[in-house]
UniProtKB/TrEMBL annotation:
Belongs to the L/F-transferase family. It comes from Nocardioides malaquae. Keywords: Acyltransferase, Cytoplasm, Transferase. NCBIfam families: aat (TIGR00667). It is found in: Cytoplasm. InterPro entries: Acyl_CoA_acyltransferase, Leu/Phe-tRNA_Trfase, Leu/Phe-tRNA_Trfase_C, Leu/Phe-tRNA_Trfase_N. The gene is aat. It catalyses: N-terminal L-arginyl-[protein] + L-leucyl-tRNA(Leu) = N-terminal L-leucyl-L-arginyl-[protein] + tRNA(Leu) + H(+); N-terminal L-lysyl-[protein] + L-leucyl-tRNA(Leu) = N-terminal L-leucyl-L-lysyl-[protein] + tRNA(Leu) + H(+); L-phenylalanyl-tRNA(Phe) + an N-terminal L-alpha-aminoacyl-[protein] = an N-terminal L-phenylalanyl-L-alpha-aminoacyl-[protein] + tRNA(Phe). Functions in the N-end rule pathway of protein degradation where it conjugates Leu, Phe and, less efficiently, Met from aminoacyl-tRNAs to the N-termini of proteins containing an N-terminal arginine or lysine. This is Leucyl/phenylalanyl-tRNA--protein transferase. Signal peptide: none annotated. Its EC number is 2.3.2.6.
Length: 213
């Protein structure tokens, strides 16, 4: 318990296998977790159902076009177990503006219906949260994320989902011991960012400059 959510602290935490969550008490510093059993999704292990494929055909996947909206939706206080507060939103929005945090969004008829966000450091993508307003919308976003991460380094990349749940396990998430996770993390951090994220970040910076921002 302690420290802050400034970019340097957050990035060092992810490189060390830690991730933060608010304590739940206003004014208290964040809590930092390093689970004994860590949930990860093998990039070749995502289980795509017929329902997910049908839904994917009705949705458009976008990246980094509505980051703050995705985090805010993930933090909707009406959701069971909601834990994302304004401090988290501000911290990860700053990471996004620096090119470290990314959102993968699902859109239908021009409306944001689902998505996820997380932090990309080398070959690590640390997923933070996801939401849906239409059936399978968050799962389609996960399908889009996996597509972005697949390249010649796929076998060494690490898609971290923090903890495994019955729902995540049904999608292919497995558990690693703390030691196994540390070894996988050390290897992943030696890799470059996925080409897709480098390209998308460059495009977004060009778009912002052309808009005069």
């Amino acid at each position: 318990m302690g420290a802050d959510l400034v970019p340097g602290t957050l990035l060092q935490a992810y490189r060390s296998g830690l991730f933060p969550m608010p304590s739940g008490d206003p004014g208290d510093p964040p809590l930092w977790f390093l689970p004994r059993r860590r949930g990860v999704l093998p990039l070749d292990g995502l289980r795509v159902t017929r329902s997910m494929r049908r839904s994917a055909r009705t949705m458009e996947v976008r990246v980094n076009t509505a980051f703050a909206e995705v985090v805010a939706a993930c933090g909707d206080p009406s959701r069971p177990g909601a834990w994302i507060d304004d401090d988290v939103l501000d911290a990860y929005t700053e990471l996004h503006e620096m090119g470290w945090a990314h959102s993968v969004e699902t859109w239908r008829d021009g409306e944001l219906v689902g998505g996820l966000y997380g932090v990309a450091v080398g070959g690590l993508f640390a997923g933070e949260s996801m939401f849906h307003r239409a059936r399978d919308a968050s799962k389609v976003a996960l399908m889009g994320l996996v597509d972005l991460l697949v390249d010649r380094h796929t076998s060494s990349r690490l898609l971290d989902v923090q903890w495994s749940t019955d729902h995540l396990a049904s999608l292919g998430v497995v558990e690693l011991t703390r030691a196994e996770y540390a070894a996988r993390l050390a290897r992943a951090l030696t890799l470059p960012l996925p080409v897709a994220f480098d390209r998308l970040w460059a495009e977004s910076r060009t778009r912002w400059r052309s808009d005069g921002v």
